[in-house]
Amino acid sequence: MIDPIKSARDAMTRGHFAEALRIAEAHVATQPFDVQAARLYATLCSELENADAERAWRNVIALAADDVEAHYMLGNLEGERGEYETAVEHFRAALGRAPIHPQLRASLGLALDELGQVHEAEASFRQALNGIANPPYALVAALARNLFRQRRFAEALHYFDILAQKSAIADATLNAAYATCLSSEGRDEEADTAFRRAIDRNNSGALGIVRDYSAFLMRRGRYADAMRLLEEARADSCADLLAASMLLICRMHLADWRDFDALRVNIIERVAQRLSQPDDVVPAYDFLALCDEPLLQRKVAQRWGEMDAPDISARPTGRNRQSGKLRLGFVSSDYNNHPVGRLVVGLFEQLDRRQFEVFAYATSAPTGDRFDERIDAAIDRYRSLDRRDPEASARAITADTIDVLFDLNGFSGGEAIRIFARRPAPVQINFLGYTGTLGSPAYDFILTDRYCVPPEQRDAFEEQLLYVEPCYLPSDPTRSRSPQVPIRADYALPEGAFVFCAFAAVYKITPQLFDGWMRLLRHVPGSVLWLRHLAADRVERMRSAAARYSVDGTRLIFAPGEDIDRYLARFALADVLLDSAPFGSHTTVNDALFSGLPVVTLAGESFAARASASQLRAAGLPNLIAHTSNEYVEIAHSLATNTALLDTARHALADPRKRSPLFDMDAYARAFEAAVAHAYERSTSGALNERA
């Protein structure tokens, strides 16, 4: 008697798969309960991509519920059509009988990865790799991609390097991920090469790859290159909110205001409507310069924070403080000649060491400049953290038993949110580096004042409001200026002209703000606008823009880049500083006021739009705060044309260290200490979750 199964297998051996399929199908029809025949038929259907393959494998399951191969094949079929939850069920059922099967583990990992269960996926990939001397390319790639998605770039890079050693990475998306990991480790030249390879191989036109490369270029100040990439990808007219936002941000850094209003309105309207798609993201820091609506800023911050740190650990309990001192930790990448470092050093020097121990955690390499040295001398302990390894960084902070931990970066660069997401301290506070909510439950409080964030705005903040009055901003009353007194000729400033100074970063200068500045130049004959150092292409664009307002472009004068002492000394050459809006130039305003230079600011609705005005109130100059664009121009015009009014403002700033609460760091430190103690008391009393 002829064995039909043997006949089918013989036909397969000869390569006659269609014949084998016919024999197996006929046998299954006559022997429906023969598991071996059902499995052979299903195998042949899969080999020949026969439409009956899924039904055939389900028939095998019906005959043998724990059949490993059937569950594996059905899991793959479910995965191909995006039914990943069902695929996971099949792979786990197969693993019940074959727990060390590497291909099953790898397939389970891929399905879990697609479901966003990245930690479980990682475990599956590692189990699949275990014991394999020469793992297949696809498995190594899967683990590398998984670690990349977790933003564990250093670990991912190890596996990407293994892939690159095996053969050239052909996949465009994988190349872009590899490039990002290279960049995170400072291997920028290799990263640039990998990104360009990804762009060259991006045949599908995936915008995500363009975004990733553009973000890399933007971080390195190559805004023109990034803008060109985004424009070629039609980022201004596509549905990708992140790409459109990046394009506008590039143009703002380049003083290129083409389609500014249309792009800005489109971005804000889409934020207001919904943020439901994966690419419905706007860089939170840059959004402060685009939108002055606190509730929308919270939506953007929440989405940005979730993208960077989606998992938040539980809050730890407070320690048993034997010494009676509160341990304060401050995390920053900017303990140097940076606005944050220059502002916070005065606070560190004034904190009462009888009540507090102060730890500074640096997430960037020390510079050794005088601010770094002053900070080191002012605190109890100075430690370095590697923010690329948030787990190890959080463990180091936990080991120091910090009571209250401050994030001095926020979304301003050098982000430490992934460290704070591990909750290394019982109280965590958003302070100084970012004037807005971080939108993350990793933070308990934001330190501000009642003018910057009135109590009625509490719904616009994920954090609870912690107030230090009259102004939240610390300062350095001992800052020094260059002993060499500059003169106007040093900067090509005309003698006798009224000098409007505007040292805002270029991305904070909107067309609307520039319009007001040009109105002032037209209405104050002979006046000039003195701006910070800019590259030649930005200078040319701004002077061309001035000409469109019938203002001679040469009346825009650009200062050189200089050291901090010289920068502070040159404020004496100006008559009035014009603040930026809606994102104020907070540290620049502080420097100007300290130097005795009156400031005109436009107070908006958000923290970022009110921080400069808060300083003016503390400095005793509330009359220089405008609430509309027209009022802003009117106040500045009055100062330029009314000598008595200008002299009065100057007199109020004549000796800021003696006259102004803004620079009274002893009083500020006491208010800060009381606020911090209050925050800690609320945490230990169990009242932290109550809105105050």
Keywords:
seven-stranded parallel beta sheet, alpha/beta, six-stranded parallel beta sheet, 13 strands, 692 residues
Question: How are the SSEs placed, and which strands pair?
Answer:
Blueprint: H1 4-13, H2 17-30, H3 35-47, H4 53-63, H5 68-80, H6 84-95, H7 102-114, H8 118-129, H9 137-149, H10 153-166, H11 172-184, H12 188-200, H13 207-219, H14 223-232, H15 241-253, H16 260-273, H17 284-287, H18 294-308, E1 326-332, H19 339-350, E2 356-362, H20 370-378, E3 381-384, H21 390-399, E4 404-407, H22 417-420, E5 427-430, E6 445-448, E7 464-467, E8 499-502, H23 511-523, E9 528-531, H24 536-548, E10 556-558, H25 564-569, E11 576-578, H26 586-594, E12 599-602, H27 607-618, E13 625-626, H28 629-641, H29 643-652, H30 656-659, H31 665-684
Parallel strand pairs: 1-2, 1-4, 2-3, 4-5, 5-6, 6-7, 8-9, 8-11, 9-10, 11-12, 12-13
Helix pairs in contact: 1-2, 2-3, 3-4, 4-5, 5-6, 6-7, 7-8, 8-9, 9-10, 10-11, 11-12, 11-13, 12-13, 13-14, 13-15, 14-15, 15-16, 19-20, 23-28, 26-27, 28-29
Helical content band: 40-55%
Structural class: alpha/beta
Round the mean pLDDT to the nearest integer and report it.
Answer: 91
Instruction: Name the shape in a single word.
Output: elongated
* Biggest sheet: strand arrangement: 3-2-1-4-5-6-7
Which stretches are poorly predicted, pLDDT < 50 over at least 5 residues?
none
Major sheet size, sense and barrel closure:
7 strands, parallel
Calculate Rg over CA atoms. 31 Å
Strand content: 5-15%
Distance between the termini: 88 Å
How many β-strand runs?
A: 13
**Tally of separate helices:** 31
